Recover the amino acids of this structure.
């Protein structure tokens, strides 16, 4: 059974995304909305990770067979300026999408396993991850012309 | 009693001190509010000395009270409330009576051009050549995104619309906003999110019949004194409405209320969620109405179920029984009116909390009929017009930037290529415009009729931005201000009564204000200035005609009328002739509704149809846009949108180092940054200096007495002002924001933060500490 691999991936993914949000919040603290929203999303990711615990206990999370390349890399450091912000938010978007798909796949398995609790947890966390992506998309779309056409 | 009907103020200052709201003229539900004519003339003049009375309306509050300007020998000498006007029935407040006198002093008369640290006077040609030279060079080198416009809540409809066309169709920049962002953006956002489009549902006439009145963060006694007089007269009459106030301050409204809820700053959403929980738990809801006219009930019910009174009490720091008791007043009422203003708009989770108030009315079907409505009040006198015409981050006529058909309609009307009109994202909000300027990607900023160096948050940062070499700053103003100090060019402008135009108050009432006197020196109206700019820049439409094609205020109004056709703010039934001397006419005013329209949504069909709505909505927690596809799939089809969000703790809560919550706000005697009211003798005398309010118990703990000089400090700055100890909520500190001196400017303390949806800065947030100043005795 490989559900444990994907639960491990989710667990690590939540931690990676939380860390990346915090990095962007700090690196782009002068963008007041980015700072605040990224901090909020980071706490949300922490909470998602916590909510996974009963299930990693139930199914395990780090079996020997888990392939290392399942993990997406977090942000190493933030970049500066309008273009830097665009790139960093873009990276966050990719990470969040990666996680979003992982939630979907674990949700599918939960249905197959008839695990009502896991189904509900996934539904809630996936919805919030989707909301994060939507915010990133909205912010990115508004920022792109300025960053790509006129920023220094 | 004739005496009771006239509030003259010759020499002695009426409407000041204990007399702000004037004598009571009680009336009962359904009666017409009695007339009381307020008058002020200077220099001991009497009515007989006046050469002419020019009809206008007050431009110093969003009430927009109808008045006549008294003119003698070509100058303004007084004002008199218009008895027949639907807004004020003759009354005027302190600012209405006296504020205009500020226009008689210290006015700019010639254009100024920066010369080192100072200015030199210049001709209009020199000033406009300089402006257009820089503008043209930047447009060629960097394109339209290098340009930003930051306007006001006090210009005329015609001026906003003209600038809107120049910015969106001439230049093609999305960077246009007004200081309306600071005062009224949440009103617009809350209306859009619930009902699909901007547009105040109710009418002031609803206050004449309501049986219940809830004021949410709305210190109406200070911000709209004449409206409060109307409410006081209802309260003094038979069958008076029950009044509930939500405000951390012990305001005059709170004192008059049966229940005063004083929530901790940053907890409004939890409080209203608690009200919604009680309405549902006690079944004070109209199930048929919800079924037929709304969408989203189940999701809302699931969220607000987590806000029983006990939890609300814990979050908000208000007694649980008061929450239940307030719901018990709202629940069974048959004609409830709710009003919302800055206490909600400038606070944490502003839009979500304001939308929650809309929900209270939607759950009970209490909207669209006499006495049952919600007011998302406006902040500034002409903020409504900035929203309508779209020089503030909206599109003209409440059009939807994501709807290609709406863009096409504008492009056809203006005869330009739709691609010129920026609509790839929501127009840029004020704080983001300043951020782009800070980063050097906006290099040309045209500020008109406003004073951001006093009114924006975290002033040290704003001053630095305005002073940047990379930014060319043009300011239109009637005076030298804290902001003109940073300008490269200052253009002297004609003010109220010195130019002709229309404006619309918070209940959609349109007034025409005609030029009564000539402006001082070489001053020009903002309309003339922007048309001159457009002509010199050579903006043209696809047929080669000048853009905008009009030259006069009336032509601009007529063009706007066409732009509004078929939209919620339909002006097609209005004209200058019809508005001249009228008692105020509410839009929509059309061929079918030639006398205007009392209230919107009387058929309970809201503006949420996919093709017509102004917005597809936002996530109330994050501000993320709802996509067109998601909106279309939801099939709102005219049903109002019940939307709820969870309360979240505010970002900068009080802690050990900064233990108190900061709120900034206004005094009844001043408007915005006091450019006019600070120069009106009666108003300046009534509130010459800033102060800090703190709770009596906190003052005792800190060893502070009334009048002591106190240092108020946040993470961003500090001010020193005298203390006033009062009945505000312990743990809160209040500073008036009007005073711009860097030693005392409240906004030196406020944080750079804004609501996720409306993008209104959260002036009522952040933490501070207080101490009695050394040597402050």
């Amino acid at each position: 059974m490989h559900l444990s691999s994907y639960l491990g991936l989710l667990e690590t993914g939540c931690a990676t995304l939380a860390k990346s949000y915090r990095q962007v919040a700090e690196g782009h603290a002068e963008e007041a909305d980015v700072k605040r929203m990224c901090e909020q999303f980071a706490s949300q990711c922490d909470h998602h990770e916590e909510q996974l615990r009963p299930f990693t206990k139930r199914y395990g999370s780090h079996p020997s067979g888990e392939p290392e390349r399942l993990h997406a890399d977090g942000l190493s450091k933030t970049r500066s300026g309008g273009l830097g912000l665009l790139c960093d938010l873009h990276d966050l978007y990719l990470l969040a999408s990666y996680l979003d798909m992982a939630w979907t796949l674990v949700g599918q398995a939960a249905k197959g396993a008839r695990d009502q609790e896991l189904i509900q947890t996934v539904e809630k966390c996936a919805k919030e991850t989707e909301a994060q992506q939507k915010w990133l998309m909205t912010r990115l779309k508004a920022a792109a012309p300025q960053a790509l056409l006129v920023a220094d | 009693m004739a005496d009771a009907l006239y509030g003259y103020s010759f020499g002695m200052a009426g409407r000041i001190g204990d007399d702000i709201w004037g004598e009571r003229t009680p009336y009962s539900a359904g009666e017409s509010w009695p007339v009381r004519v307020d008058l002020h003339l200077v220099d001991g003049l009497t009515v007989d000395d006046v050469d002419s009375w020019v009809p206008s309306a007050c431009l110093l509050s969003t009430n927009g009270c109808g008045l006549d300007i008294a003119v003698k020998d070509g100058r303004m000498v007084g004002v008199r409330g218009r008895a027949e006007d639907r807004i004020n029935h003759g009354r005027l407040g302190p600012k209405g009576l006296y504020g205009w006198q500020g226009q008689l002093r210290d006015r700019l008369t010639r254009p100024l051009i920066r010369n080192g640290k100072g200015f030199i006077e210049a001709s209009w040609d020199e000033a406009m050549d300089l402006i257009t030279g820089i503008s043209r060079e930047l447009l060629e080198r960097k394109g339209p995104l290098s340009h930003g416009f930051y306007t006001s809540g006090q210009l005329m409809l015609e001026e906003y619309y003209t600038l809107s066309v120049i910015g969106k169709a001439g230049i093609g920049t999305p960077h246009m906003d007004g200081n309306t962002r600071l005062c009224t953006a949440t009103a617009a956002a809350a209306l859009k999110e619930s009902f699909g489009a901007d547009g105040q549902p109710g009418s002031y006439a609803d206050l004449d019949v309501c049986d219940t009145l809830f004021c949410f963060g709305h210190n109406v006694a200070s911000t709209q004194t004449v409206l409060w007089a109307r409410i006081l007269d209802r309260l003094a009459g038979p069958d008076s409405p029950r009044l509930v106030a939500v405000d951390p301050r012990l305001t005059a409204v709170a004192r008059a209320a049966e229940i005063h809820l004083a929530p901790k700053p940053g907890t409004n959403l939890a409080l209203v969620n608690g009200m919604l929980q009680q309405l549902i738990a006690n079944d004070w809801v109209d199930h048929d109405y919800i079924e037929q006219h709304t969408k989203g009930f189940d999701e809302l019910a699931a969220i607000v179920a987590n806000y029983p009174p006990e939890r609300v009490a814990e979050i908000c720091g208000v007694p649980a029984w008061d929450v239940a008791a307030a719901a018990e007043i709202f629940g069974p009422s048959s004609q409830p009116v709710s009003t919302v203003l800055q206490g909600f708009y400038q606070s944490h989770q502003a839009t979500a909390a304001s939308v929650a108030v809309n929900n209270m009315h939607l759950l009970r079907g209490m909207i669209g009929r006499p006495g049952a409505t919600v007011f998302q009040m406006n902040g500034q006198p002409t903020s409504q017009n900035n929203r309508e015409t779209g020089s503030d981050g909206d599109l003209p006529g409440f059009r939807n930037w994501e709807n290609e058909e709406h863009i096409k309609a504008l492009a056809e009307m203006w005869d330009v290529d739709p691609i010129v009109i920026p609509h790839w994202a929501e127009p840029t909000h004020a704080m983001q415009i300043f951020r782009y300027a800070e980063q050097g990607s906006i290099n040309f900023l045209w500020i008109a009729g406003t004073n951001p160096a006093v009114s924006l948050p975290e002033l040290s940062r704003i001053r630095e931005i305005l002073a940047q070499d990379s930014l060319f700053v043009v300011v239109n103003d009637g005076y030298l201000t804290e902001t003109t100090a940073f300008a490269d060019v200052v253009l002297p402008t004609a003010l109220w009564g010195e130019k002709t135009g229309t404006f619309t108050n918070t209940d959609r009432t349109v007034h025409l204000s005609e030029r009564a006197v000539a402006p001082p020196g070489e001053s020009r109206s903002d309309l003339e200035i922007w048309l001159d700019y457009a002509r010199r820049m050579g903006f043209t439409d696809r047929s080669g005609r000048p853009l905008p094609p009009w030259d006069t205020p009336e032509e601009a109004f007529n063009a706007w009328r066409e732009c509004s056709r078929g939209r919620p703010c339909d002006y097609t039934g209005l004209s200058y002739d019809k508005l001249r001397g009228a008692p105020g006419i509410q839009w929509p005013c059309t061929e079918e509704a030639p006398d205007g329209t009392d209230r919107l949504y009387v058929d309970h069909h809201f503006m949420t149809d996919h093709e017509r709505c102004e917005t597809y909505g936002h996530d109330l927690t994050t501000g993320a846009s709802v996509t067109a596809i998601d909106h279309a799939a939801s099939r709102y089809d005219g049903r109002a949108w019940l939307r709820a969000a969870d309360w979240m703790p505010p970002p900068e809560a009080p802690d050990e180092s900064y233990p108190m919550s900061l709120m900034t706000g206004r005094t009844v005697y001043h408007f915005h940054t006091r450019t006019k009211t600070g120069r009106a003798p009666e108003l300046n005398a009534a509130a010459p200096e800033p102060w800090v309010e703190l709770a009596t118990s906190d003052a005792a703990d800190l060893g502070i007495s009334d009048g002591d000089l106190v240092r108020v400090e946040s993470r961003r700055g500090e001010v020193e002002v005298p203390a006033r100890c009062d009945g505000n909520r312990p743990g809160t500190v209040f500073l008036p924001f009007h005073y711009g001196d860097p030693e005392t400017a409240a906004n030196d303390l406020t944080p750079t933060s804004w609501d996720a949806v409306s993008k209104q800065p959260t002036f009522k947030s952040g933490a501070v500490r207080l101490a009695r100043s050394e040597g402050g005795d």
Observations:
- Chain A has a mean pLDDT of 92.
